[in-house]
Amino acid sequence: MLWKNSKVDRLAIIGGTGLTELSGLELVRKEMIRTPYGEPSGPLIHGRFYGHEIVFFARHGYGHTIPPHKVNYRANIWAMKQVGVSYVIAVAAVGGITDRLEPGMLVIPHQIMDYTYSRKHTFFENDLAQVTHIDFTEPYCPQLRQLICNGSEANGVGVVHKGVYAAMQGPRLETAAEINRLEKDGCTVVGMTGMPEAALAKELDLCYAAINVVANKAAGRSEGQITLAEIRKNLHEGMKRVRELIGSTIRQMANLECLVKTA
Ligand code: HPA
Fold it and tell me: In total, how many domains does the chain have?
């Protein structure tokens, strides 16, 4: 496989809550990678999906045991780079802040606001002679985002083509007042894992985009409490559509003109 004729150009799918395995993925082999940053959340799964060899990786571990603030984002991203991944589609559950976002909907975010703290968030912390300030004006690869959006049209999977992702520390959900503040800040969806993952991917020059699955309306945006049962049910429905969307994106990967990755 083979996008852009390069042997090392590999696509990875990072699965979040509700996507600890990719049904339809034909297992080729599992690979545990050691990194200078410690252990990744689990082995990388090399497999075939829609006729292409890809890498699948469960962000929270395969038993979903690692909470958002404990994920070793550096080790995960490093491991992917190590095995020749160039493109990453990161799937993550979110709460919908804006009214029109209903549970089960898919959003392809274009911007991020980072409210996380105390996470290991950079690869550039030791060699002070060479601090690198990456450009993060566009946190997600616009070309890969576009490809995903095109895939949704080709496939009839309706998605919202833009979103501002608020990365919160978790693991608790937000207060209603916090959600009001996020909305004032311009955020449309809220999750806990989007950062530092996106920034680390950029530091290693990966082409990275996200598919957000609305698991619930954010705190204070619907009657009553947000329950885990409700989140699970909505994610289950949403993930079926995520799989289709990934499939139609993969079918178009050969058309990807990514400015970030030029190998
Ligand atoms: N807030 C933060 N993260 C989330 C939510 C939420 O409402 N739903 C799913 N992940």
Answer: 1
Q: What is the pLDDT of residues 172-215, one digit of tens each?
A: 999 999 999 999 999 999 999 999 999 999 999 999 999 999 99
226 CA: nearest ligand 1 atom: 7
**At 157, is the secondary structure helix, strand, or coil?**
coil
> Do the domain assignments include residue 219?
yes
Neighbours of 4 (CB within 10 A): 16
| Residue whose structure tokens are 């329950």 | 227
On the CB side of 69, CA atoms within 13 Å amount to 10
Nearest CA to ligand 1 atom 5: 95
257 C-alpha to center of ligand 1: Å? Answer: 32
**β-pairing, 10-15 with 52-58?**
parallel
- Please give the model's pTM, rounded to 2 decimal places: 0.93
Domain span at residue 249 reads 10-122+134-255
Instruction: Please name the residues in contact with 51: beta carbons below 8 A apart, sequence gap of 6 or more.
Output: none
Domain annotation covers residue 1: no
Closest Cα to atom 6 of ligand 1: 95
Span 79-135, pLDDT tens digits: 999 999 999 999 999 999 999 999 999 999 999 999 999 999 999 987 767 778 899
Listed in sequence order, the DSSP H helices in the chain are: 73-82, 142-155, 176-184, 197-203, 228-251
Tell me, yes or no, whether 104 lies in a domain.
yes
CATH number where 23 lies: 3.40.50.1580
Give me ligand 1 centre to Cα 9, in Å. Answer: 32
Closest C-alpha residue for ligand 1 atom 9: 94
Q: Cα separation of 45 and 14, whole Å?
A: 10
- Report the pocket of ligand 1 as residue ranges, CB < 6 Å: 93-95, 168, 173-174, 190-192, 215-216, 218, 231
